Hints:
mainly alpha; 193 residues; 5 helices
Amino acid sequence: MTSPASPPSRRRRGILILAFAVYLALLAWVVLWKLEVPWIGDAAGMARPIKLVPFIANGDAGASMLAELVINLVLFVPFGLFIGALAPTWSWWRAGATALGASLALETVQHLISTGSFDTTDLIVNTAGALAGWAIFLAVRHGAGERTPTVMTRVCVLVAALAVVATVAFVASPLHYGPQRDIVVQHSTPRDD
């Protein structure tokens, strides 16, 4: 008999790890390349500004659009679900720190390869999405009790499967996020008059 906070069995854990790996691969593809063919921009390695002030326009960076905020939030909810399923004894701050670390890694990579820019807004919203997923896990654990490992395995496998189906549907459709272009900020140079 397992308690609600006990880790999943070895078989369930293997299934969860596989589903989490699928989710993480799709998440990276969405964040870094918006489901387009992976590429590295010409501006990779060039010094570019980093948006340190979240949510508002500053410097060369515009304010975050509501749709982008909602998408980022929703994309990271499964992260919290998976962390809850794989590490049910963790505290909320440990789950949040893990999500923040993953988000920081993705933001840094997209900035370095010039497929996006580093934005602290994304760090905050992505972490909030993962914590929302963690809260959902806690609600499931409260309601499911000893069946939590089984329920969470099914939920996480379903989430990964839906992510694959949604990705295939998006890639096969005529819809696209937009043309990929280097993220380079053009600065005007002062003229000698």
